[in-house]
């Protein structure tokens, strides 16, 4: 574990009168799996939204590889190396699984619209390469056999994993997973934990939001805990589990330990 | 209901290359031989059959292909499509009567003018939400017409008269009543447009548009430069509209603001919706049917717009995917899989 | 020119105000539906157009007025005006409810996104406008004058015309009734609840379909009243007036902030005045362009209008 790839410094996000994030500071180090947990409404997805540029933060700094993300367009943030999945699956239902991933791999193409129109050699080569790359990613995540199925017809679990493959398609350095195990049964969760480690081992950095404590604790190298928009803990899983503030945050809060 | 498009696509995919070439040639030959069918059941009782083939049928097809890039591919509701048609036509009218340029030389200029106005309109308008875009484009269409109606240079309500026909090509003369020649030329332009759209649809641009149509925010967060692609869709749609306009002016020899009302935008929209938004074959079928029928069936010709309005309501509520829906098929799972 | 303008300022203002009230009432047909469904009720313009014909039919065919008839006076005049107003409102209200049932409801159930209802609405507009065009032989229809447009007073140097006065007074009364309905009655409160949070309202046992129908009815009634006032002021109508007035009223709704009754009020008044003043300088042929320019400028610079909600929100 080395230098931070992403760092949030005193990040505050207000919506009208509501403070969703208050003075949050933490780093994501290169090639680690960082778990982000907290009770419902603690501001976890808001963190994802401010990192990916969906919201502009009220104050503070977010730096990716040492550069501020302030005011950078959303698609450029993705191109710069941050990709995400969505808590409520947002695939393009009328496209096949392969096309979903290919749309993401297109991010790094050189040939433009005109090249595509005239079928320039660059464009044709890129098309072939991307198709291959997309198939590889599907295989990597373990859903290769579904490549030609329309996304909306895929089983739920496959859709969740396709979201990950699609995010990987943008060739990120950092991937943000928003509750990838939501709705999974225990066997699927074990499978997913393997996939997440595999992603890290392939050289990606992972920031993971997950409700399932045992999964987070098992897979993360480090865990950041949020409560009411504030960071209350940031340590290795074993220490976080015993942190009294964390226990307090979770006690009495209806935790859907699914 | 049977999905005709799937049947067609299945036959096409099973065919090898020579078979495909033969099918394409047959299809084009059929389309090209339509002007000779005047003596058959296809004949139109109200208007001259061959001129009906040029306008509205072929012209509608061309414009529907253009509008389909905007609304069908990328899901942007453009209610002012007629503006680009008008800009193409007025470019032809002005340059054709005031300069020595001929139709073929004006064609690229007209297309460029339409594309340019597509950028002028699109860059600000495409930042707005879908339904507001519809209203803004509607306004743009009207503004273009009102400007034509009030500017002396554009002939006000009298329009522009005496627009020249295209000069001969390879000894083939374009005269006022040589409808067949115009029809065949249009057919070539249509084939070019089809080629362009198909080429773009299967590649990166097609995927980008598709992702924007289905979930624009997700597309942007997956690194698709959504705004750029929306402007491109708009501009490409405009270019087709502009080409149609140039050719229309050079065919009718006379244009006036009354040719470019909101109704045209809505007629073309009806063609696209009726045929099936997003699927180019559906759109072509829709434009052929809606362009042709009102001239074939007498009672329809008066109530043309009424029927088109009904088509919009009925299609949206009962068969929102149109006659030939966009791709819905998927390849079956391989029976034995191993990843 | 400026001198002329100052000379005519008050009479222009007075005419602009009565036009403004017509806009307000049509804008309500857009804004109330938008408030509840977040949808542009595109066909509202044609509801307005049909309502103008309802007024003409009452005056011409029910009360048998012709272009050469004597003006009505006293009780008879008020009876005619009252019937025409109520008939226009009723026709527009019912038509509006029917349009929702036929063209929107199914799509709303299917959750079909923004495009489909809009296209369906365009279809309905086309059907209404074309039916009227065929019925009127594509010609404008003049309304016989039942009421003498006499001057009833002076304000500064401007003559105050009876028709403008009736429009302003009656529209204010209608708006007060509407506010009472929305703020004080159970149904009105249900409408507000649904526009704030449809899902929660459903959970609270509010019948959403019922509320939507009532919203269309009320929006239609207001639009219908505008149809009557329009004929009272301009004494003619045509199958094609819906488009122009509709866009102007929609602009008014956006100007004030769509989805919000107060917004329609301020937007309508400002647009009525702006348009009247602008026509004085530029000529009436550029009226539509002026309106569109205002619409575009407002959408870019102040997309929330003066009182409205954000239009460019992200769903992520």
Report on the architecture of this protein:
The complex is a heterotrimer of chains A (258), B (339) and C (316). With 258 residues, chain A is α/β, with parallel strands linked by helices. Chain A contains 10 helices and 10 strands. Chain A folds into 2 domains: 4-81 and 172-251, P-loop containing nucleotide triphosphate hydrolases (Rossmann fold, 3-Layer(aba) Sandwich), CATH 3.40.50.300; 96-162, no CATH class. Helix content of chain A is 39%, strand content 24%. The mean pLDDT of chain A is 89. Chain B is built from 14 helices and no strands. The two termini of chain B are 35 Å apart. Mean pLDDT of chain B is 88; it is low at 332-339. Chain C is mostly helical. Chain C has one domain (17-239). Chain C has helices at residues 2-37, 44-62, 74-110, 115-135, 162-184, 186-196, 198-203, 208-234, 241-256, 261-282, 287-301, and strands spanning 141-142, 151-155, 158-161, 236-237. Chain C has a two-stranded antiparallel ribbon. Chain C has a two-stranded antiparallel ribbon with strand order 2-3. In chain C, helix 1 packs parallel to helix 5 (162-184), helix 1 (2-37) packs antiparallel against helix 10 and helix 2 packs across helix 8. The model of chain C is unreliable at 310-316 (pLDDT under 50). Classes of the chains: A alpha/beta (258), B mainly alpha (339), C mainly alpha (316). The interface between B and C is large, with 45 and 44 residues.
How many H/I helical runs of chain C? 11
Order of helices and strands of chain A: EEEHEEHEHHHHEHEHEEHH
What low-confidence regions of chain C span 5 or more consecutive residues with pLDDT below 50?
310-316
Distance between the termini of chain A: 31 Å
Number of strands of chain C: 4
């Amino acid at each position: 574990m080395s230098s931070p790839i992403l760092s949030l410094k005193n990040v505050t996000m207000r919506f009208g009168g509501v403070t969703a994030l208050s003075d949050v500071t933490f780093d994501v180090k290169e090639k680690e799996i960082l778990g982000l947990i907290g009770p419902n409404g603690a501001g976890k997805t808001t963190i994802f939204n401010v990192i990916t540029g969906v919201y502009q933060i009220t104050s503070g700094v977010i730096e990716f590889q040492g550069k501020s993300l302030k005011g950078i367009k959303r698609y450029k943030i993705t191109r710069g190396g941050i990709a995400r999945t969505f808590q409520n699956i947002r695939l393009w239902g009328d496209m096949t699984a392969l096309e979903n991933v290919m749309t993401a791999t297109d991010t790094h193409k050189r040939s433009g619209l005109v090249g595509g129109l005239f079928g320039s050699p660059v464009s044709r080569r890129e098309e072939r390469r991307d198709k291959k790359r997309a198939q590889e990613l599907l295989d990597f995540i373990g859903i290769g056999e579904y490549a030609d199925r329309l996304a909306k017809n895929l089983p739920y679990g496959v859709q969740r994993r396709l979201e990950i493959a699609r995010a990987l398609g943008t060739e990120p350095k950092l991937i943000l997973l928003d509750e990838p195990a939501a709705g999974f049964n225990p066997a699927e969760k074990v499978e997913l934990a393997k996939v997440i480690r595999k992603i890290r081992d392939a050289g990606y950095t992972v920031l993971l939001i997950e409700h399932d404590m045992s999964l987070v604790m098992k897979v993360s190298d480090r865990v950041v805990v949020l409560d009411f928009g504030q960071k209350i803990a940031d340590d290795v899983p074993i220490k976080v589990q015993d942190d009294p503030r964390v226990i307090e945050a979770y006690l009495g809060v209806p935790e859907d330990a699914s | 209901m049977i999905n005709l498009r799937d049947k067609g696509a299945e036959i096409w995919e099973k065919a090898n290359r020579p078979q495909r070439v033969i099918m394409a040639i047959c299809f084009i030959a059929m389309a090209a031989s339509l002007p000779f069918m005047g003596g058959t059941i296809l004949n139109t009782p109200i208007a001259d059959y061959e001129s009906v083939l040029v306008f509205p049928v072929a012209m509608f097809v061309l414009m529907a292909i253009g509008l389909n890039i905007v609304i069908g591919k990328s899901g942007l509701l453009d209610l002012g499509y007629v503006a680009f048609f008008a800009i193409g036509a007025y470019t032809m009218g002005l340059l054709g009567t005031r300069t020595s340029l001929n139709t073929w030389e004006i064609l690229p200029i007209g297309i460029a003018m339409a594309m340019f106005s597509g950028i002028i309109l699109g860059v600000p308008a495409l930042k707005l939400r879908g339904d507001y875009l519809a209203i803004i484009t509607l306004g743009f269409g009207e503004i273009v017409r009102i400007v034509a109606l009030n500017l002396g240079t554009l002939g006000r309500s009298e329009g522009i008269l005496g627009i020249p026909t295209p000069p001969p090509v390879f000894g083939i003369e374009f005269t006022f009543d040589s409808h067949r020649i115009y029809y065949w030329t249009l057919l070539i332009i249509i084939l070019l447009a089809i080629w362009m759209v198909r080429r773009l649809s299967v590649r990166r641009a097609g995927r980008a548009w598709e992702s924007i149509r289905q979930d624009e925010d997700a597309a942007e967060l997956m690194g698709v430069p959504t705004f750029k692609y929306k402007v491109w869709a708009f501009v490409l749609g405009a270019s087709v509209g502009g080409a149609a306009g140039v050719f229309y002016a050079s065919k009718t020899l006379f244009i006036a603001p009354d040719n470019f009302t909101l109704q045209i935008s809505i007629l073309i929209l009806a063609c696209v919706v009726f045929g099936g938004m997003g699927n180019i074959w559906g759109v072509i079928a829709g434009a052929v049917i809606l362009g042709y029928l009102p001239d074939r069936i007498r009672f329809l010709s008066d109530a043309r717009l009424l029927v088109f309005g009904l088509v919009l309501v009925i299609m949206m509520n009962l068969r929102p995917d149109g006659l030939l829906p966009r791709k819905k098929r998927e390849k079956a799972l391989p029976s034995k899989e191993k990843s | 020119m400026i001198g002329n303008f100052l000379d005519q300022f008050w009479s222009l203002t007075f005419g602009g105000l009565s036009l403004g009230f017509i806009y307000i009432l049509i804008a309500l047909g857009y804004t109330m539906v938008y408030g509840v469904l977040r949808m542009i009720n595109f066909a509202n313009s044609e509801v307005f157009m049909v309502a103008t014909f309802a007024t003409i039919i009452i005056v011409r065919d029910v009360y048998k007025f012709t272009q050469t008839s004597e003006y009505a006076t006293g009780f008879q005049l008020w009876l005619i005006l009252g019937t025409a107003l109520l008939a226009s409102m009723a026709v527009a209200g019912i038509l509006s409810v029917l349009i929702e049932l036929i063209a929107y409801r199914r799509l709303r159930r299917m959750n079909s996104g923004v495009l489909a209802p809009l296209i369906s609405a365009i279809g309905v507009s086309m059907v209404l406008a074309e039916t009227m065009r065929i019925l009127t032989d594509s010609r404008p229809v003049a309304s016989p004058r039942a009421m003498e447009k006499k001057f009833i007073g002076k304000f500064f140097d401007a003559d105050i015309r009876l028709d403008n006065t009736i429009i302003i007074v009656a529209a204010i009364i209608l708006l007060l009734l509407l506010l009472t309905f929305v703020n004080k009655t159970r149904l009105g409160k249900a409408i507000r609840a649904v526009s704030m949070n449809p899902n929660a309202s459903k959970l609270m046992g509010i019948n959403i379909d019922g509320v939507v129908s009532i919203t269309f009815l009320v929006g239609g009634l207001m639009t219908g009243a505008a149809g009557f006032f329009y004929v009272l002021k301009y004494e003619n109508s045509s199958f094609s007036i819906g488009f122009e007035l509709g866009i102007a009223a929609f602009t008014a709704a956006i100007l004030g902030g769509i989805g919000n009754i107060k917004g329609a009020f301020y937007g309508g008044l400002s647009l009525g005045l702006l348009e009247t003043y602008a026509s004085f300088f530029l000529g009436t042929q550029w009226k539509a362009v002026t309106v569109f320019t205002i619409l575009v400028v407002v959408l870019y610079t102040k997309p929330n209008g003066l009182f409205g909600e954000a239009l460019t929100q992200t769903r992520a």
